[in-house]
Design a protein that fits this description.
The chain is of the alpha+beta class. Among the domains are: about 70 residues, Herpes Virus-1 (2-Layer Sandwich); about 50 residues, Zinc/RING finger domain, C3HC4 (zinc finger) (Herpes Virus-1, 2-Layer Sandwich), CATH 3.30.40.10. The protein has five helices and eight strands; from the N terminus they run ααβαββαβββαββ.
């Protein structure tokens, strides 16, 4: 059994009356609006027209969003001449996409192949683009490096090149050094040679040679592995 005080009972009654009053007011207002619309059909037509106009304005606003070139990232302007591809709808400045087409005939964004560019100016015309694929063209110096990878080696001791016939390469890390820079004179020794860095890590590597030569900036030592 639940009992409430007199004050609580009066509070509940007041809240119930207030709720019922608000409900009746809302129903009367809704009924009045329906009666006005029924009495004046022209008003309903105006409301529907205003809604359609609002939608039209929204669609125009969406179209007015400025596009951005997919190459130079500049926004579309009044004096901007764009180039339209026949493969997709991505936006580009005509000058940007025209230069791009000299190297590759694929859209920079979606990589679809295109064959024409339309210049968006009166009488701009149509530009035909042959099929092209971007190919890396190495420089003359890079080509020489590919053909002779040891052509530009520099001694790690004197930091100079030249005397390729007297240049030793470490048998572990390929570090180059002149024979005379590591104390071996002007003759190329037989056997394996290891720079100071590699000799400290693996002083006696397992190999088929019977001799090991360790070179440095101040001295060089030759070891006969058969006697060790």
């Amino acid at each position: 059994e639940c009992t409430i005080s007199e004050d609580e009972r009066q509070q509940i009654i007041r809240e119930a009356k207030e709720f019922c009053g608000n409900l009746r007011t809302g129903l009367r207002r809704k009924k009045k609006i329906k009666e006005e619309e029924a009495a004046s059909p022209q008003r309903g037509l105006q409301n529907s027209n205003s809604k359609g106009k609002k939608k039209m304005v929204d669609s125009k606003t969406a179209v007015l969003v400025k596009q951005m070139c997919g190459i130079c990232l500049s926004e579309e302007g009044k004096n901007t001449v764009s180039g339209i591809l026949n493969s997709c709808s991505h936006y580009f400045c005509f000058s940007c996409i025209n230069e791009w087409a000299k190297v590759e005939s694929r859209c920079p964004v979606c990589k679809k192949r295109f064959s024409t560019i339309i210049k968006t100016v009166p009488g701009g015309g149509l530009t035909h683009v042959p099929e092209r694929d971007q190919v890396y063209q190495p420089s003359e110096e890079e080509v020489r490096g590919f053909l002779d990878p040891y052509g530009n080696v520099v001694c790690i001791e004197c930091l100079e090149g030249g005397d390729d016939g007297l240049m030793l390469l470490c048998d572990l890390c390929d570090s180059p050094s002149h024979t005379y820079c590591v104390g071996l004179g002007f003759e190329v020794p037989e056997g394996n040679w290891f720079c100071n860095g590699c000799s400290s890590l693996t002083p006696f590597p397992d190999n088929d040679s019977s001799s090991l030569i360790i070179g440095g900036s101040s001295s060089a030592a030759s070891f006969d592995l058969d006697k060790l």
